[in-house]
Write a structure and sequence with these properties.
Layout (H helix, E strand, L loop, with lengths): L27 E3 L7 E3 L20 H4 L1 H10 L8 E2 H8 L3 H13 L3 E8 L2 E8 L1 H19 L5
Antiparallel strand pairs: 1-2, 3-5, 4-5
Organism: Actinoplanes octamycinicus
Protein name: DNA-binding transcriptional ArsR family regulator
InterPro entries: ArsR-like_HTH, WH-like_DNA-bd_sf, WH_DNA-bd_dom, WH_DNA-bd_sf
Amino acid sequence: MSDTTKPPKSDPAKPPESDPTEPPTSNLTRSPTSKTAETPTSDTTEPPTGGPTGELPELDPVIHAQARLRVVSALSQLREADSIAFPRLQEILRVTAGNLSVHLRKLEDAGYVEVVKTHRGRTPATLVRLTRRGRLAFDDYVIALRALLNHPEES
């Protein structure tokens, strides 16, 4: 007999574990006609301050990575409809083009940023902006972080 063990089978009654790089579910839905348009599903948005049991709020893992937090923070300083050129964002953040591209892709996959490739005259230009969904996610992230920082210690 061999001592090989089989991997455990997944329990169909148990929901699959979530991917920490996926954005948390929110009260936003995407419009079927637009990749970046979002529509709130309710008029009330509850801040992520834990629940009635007092548990600590969760921080959005997509935003929480240091480089992505810096990107979203920088983009949040722009007006809602404004965008910034990729090289300027790279200069502000002092990151390599490859590193910035990887993090922008994660944020874009989550619907938090929009990356538009265009031309200025004959010169290619890449413009980046924070979407409404990204702005709301960042606002929720800041609220959750403040709640964590102000959470009374249990004795």
